[in-house]
Amino acid sequence: MVIAKNEAAHIQRLLNSVRPFVDDMLVLDTGSTDATSVLAAQAGARVAHLPWPDDFSVARNAALDLAAADWHIVLDADEWLIDGDDPSGPGAEALQALRQTPPDFVGTIALEDQFDDGVAHARLSRILPGPVRYAGRIHEQAMHALPVKPLALRIGHDGYRSERLTDKQGRNQRLLQAALQDRPNDAYLWYQLGKDAFVYDDFAMAEEAFATCATHLTSLPAWWPDLVARRLFGLKRLGRHADGVVLADTQMAICEESPDVFFALGDLLLDWAAEEPTQADVLLPMIEQAWRRCLELGERPDQPGAVAGRGSHLAAFNLALVLDGTGRADEARALRQQFPQG
């Protein structure tokens, strides 16, 4: 099941990737002016229409009502089933197994967000029993009290590539701000507003939203290390290096298992050293320590927002530059051999 608007360039990629493994495909078109509906029908989907309600939950719930299945896999038009051409692959098997599985849990999928300069990982609840519905104007959440189980589905997403971001600019921010009018103390919405600003390089707005998010937390969510890593990167871009170090000091014990946080800290400290060379002797050991910690932790794709490489070759590349610059060329060479660039 998918809601879509002006996704002619992508809709068939999605539908073709899942068609062999599902019983039915529904596309709810929310006002396309391109060939989305025609192409979806050509790919074998049922197509329905709904004027865009300015609310993702309303649209998704309307699509779920129309799909009316025991199990729903909820995807976006700019996503696709990775290895969908392999009928014996784990994703295909997981989908086909649902036909014989009672709909008494919510299943999560592994989402691989593809950016211009890398891949980030997340795990999202996208396999829903028939009665489950969404709440929330944007970054909507499935509402249920069921067990949650990880399923072996890898879903690709390229909606954050630069050519796609231009088309979406402003839409999510407007919806998030409208949602915050109703729920001003919702930490998750502030986090998402910060992420949206961050994606568009508005680091001042991102920092304000992330800081506000922190004031509304009642417990630490799984996405907290992602917020901290983004804050550190944003503070670096704002030239607020000292503020970043203060933030890191308060968060390292909490985020001690996040290579992304240590990677962002090393990045911030290196930028500070470049800006103030007189402090380099003090900062370089801290930079080295941060990136060595990344390599100790290794890749953590299970952590929300984890960027591929920050626990391996990206950290090793940066650390090798530091080693070269401090007269340890042999150690740098060995590190590059151990962690070759992808």
What does this structure look like?
The structure is a single chain. 48% of the residues lie in helices and 17% in strands. The mean pLDDT is 95. The chain has 342 residues and is of the alpha/beta class. Strands 4, 5, 6, 7, 10 and 11 form a six-stranded mixed beta sheet that branches. The chain has a three-stranded parallel beta sheet with strand order 1-2-3, with helices on both faces. It has two domains: 2-164, Alpha-Beta Complex (Spore Coat Polysaccharide Biosynthesis Protein SpsA, Chain A), CATH 3.90.550.10; 220-338, Serine Threonine Protein Phosphatase 5, Tetratricopeptide repeat. Strand 6 and strand 7 (118-129) form a beta hairpin. Helix 9 packs antiparallel against helix 10 (241-251) and helix 11 runs antiparallel to helix 12 (280-297). The chain has 14 helices and eleven strands. It has helices at residues 11-18, 36-42, 56-67, 90-97, 162-168, 171-182, 187-199, 203-215, 224-237, 241-251, 259-275, 280-297, 313-325, 329-338, and strands at 2-4, 26-29, 46-49, 71-73, 79-81, 106-115, 118-129, 133-135, 141-143, 148-157, 306-307.
